[in-house]
Amino acid sequence: MTQSAQHNSKILVTTAGAVGSETVRLLNEQAVPVRVLVRDPTKVKALSDAGAEVAVGDLDVPESIDEAMEGIGAVVLVSPAVVAQELNVVRSAAHAGVEHIVKASSKASPDSPIARRRGQIEIEVGLAASGVPHTILRSNAYMQNFLALAPAIANTGAFGSATGLGQVGLVDARDVAAVAVEIVRSPGAHAGKTYLLTGPELLSYYDVAALLASQLGRAVTYHELTLAENREAMIHAGVPEQIADMNAQAFSLIADGDAAWLSDDIESILGRSSRSFAQFAADYRSAFSYAAN
Ligand SMILES: NC(=O)c1ccc[n+]([C@@H]2O[C@H](COP(=O)([O-])OP(=O)(O)OC[C@H]3O[C@@H](n4cnc5c(N)ncnc54)[C@H](OP(=O)(O)O)[C@@H]3O)[C@@H](O)[C@H]2O)c1
Questions:
Q1: Does domain 10-140+173-197+261-270 have CATH number 3.40.50.720?
Q2: Which residue of 12, 13, 14, 15 sits with most ligand 1 atoms within 8 Å of its CB, as the best mutation to test the pocket?
Q3: Where are the domains of the chain?
Q4: Which residues of the chain have pLDDT under 50?
Q5: pLDDT tens digits for 9-40?
Q6: In the chain, which end has fewer C-beta atoms inside a 10 angstrom radius, N or C?
Q7: Alpha helices in 131-264 (DSSP H)
Q8: Is the whole-model pTM more than 0.85?
Q9: Pocket flag, ligand 1, residue 15 (CB < 6 Å)
Q10: CB 169 within 8 A of CB 199
């Protein structure tokens, strides 16, 4: 073991979404004590059956966060990144004397046209002010976002987006989780660092369609949408208006080259390559094949 000692105290993971659930699964698999805060414990039965501890709470309710924080040594802060909610976690962790926070973030910037990215900066500033040692994971877009399009792809063989011809350094959320686990287990060398997490290649949505077609063995077509059309399509699919606004903005920024960046931080931290989109498509093949009604 190096000077960055391994963490054996209990780790709190703040939600069980794409990154959180895989983070909990990996920690549990590595026999690291882990607690996950969720609103609905029935959604994480597989994790609790596997041995993870579940704390029922809500990031809008500080008392429930304080309860979940009891006996915790380090936190993986991942959530929809609502500023007040994540700052609730930061305050609770600072008060409890938590040793390290790993925060999932995105291309945060104080002057971003996207409210969520301005919010991420507010959270990062609050985290820095808290004095709790921390590490920021600034990820490119997650491959798992395509799972929202999977029913359409399964049923119609087509999907649309306002990303135009823009390329993205898509990253598998499972790799973001693996990095969070590596850091939270041995945080010393990572304190104060910001890592850029991407997959291994830049892909346009036309490339994504071709990779899905090759994996599924049938035609998959990508069609370009305007920002307004993309926003409407998401609202029609049940995405709340405010989120649809931010997502549509992010997609149209991709068309302008906003997500055309790569980094080898995953490889440096994990000592292996980041997962490719072809690997993601193979692993999630059934989601894209299932004909939902
Ligand atoms: N998606 C991307 O492409 C992307 C790219 C870069 C960075 N990021 C960052 O990644 C983070 C999101 O991570 P993710 O994709 O793993 O999240 P996710 O899959 O969207 O899951 C969010 C989770 O938060 C839970 N949740 C929502 N409100 C809650 C509340 N009030 N109290 C407790 N739990 C609550 C939800 O649980 P319920 O089941 O109860 O609703 C859900 O499990 C954000 O910081 C985002 O900016 C995302």
A1: yes
A2: 15
A3: 10-140+173-197+261-270
A4: 1-4, 292-293
A5: 999 999 999 999 999 999 999 999 999 999 99
A6: C
A7: 150-156, 173-185, 205-216, 227-236, 241-255
A8: yes
A9: yes
A10: yes
Q: Please report which residue ranges of 38-163 form alpha helices under DSSP H.
A: 45-49, 62-69, 83-96, 115-130, 150-156
Token output for 277:
């989109």
Per-residue pLDDT of 61-91, as tens digits, reads 999 999 999 999 999 999 999 999 999 999 9
> Which residue out of 24, 35, 79, 258 has the highest number of ligand 1 atoms within 8 Å of its CB and is therefore the one to mutate?
79
Whole-angstrom CA distances from 155 to 79, 244, 279 are 30, 22, 22
Q: How far apart, in Å, are the Cα atoms of 57 and each of 27, 35, 68, 69, 186?
A: 20, 12, 8, 11, 27
Per-residue model confidence (pLDDT) at position 6: 62
Helix H or strand E encompassing 22? helix 18-29
Among 206, 245, 248, residue whose Cα is nearest residue 223? 206
Structure tokens belonging to residue 215: 């994996």
Helix (H) or strand (E) holding 195: strand 194-197
CA of 2 to the centre of ligand 1 (A): 33
What is the sign of the dihedral through the CA atoms of 225, 229, 230 and 234?
negative
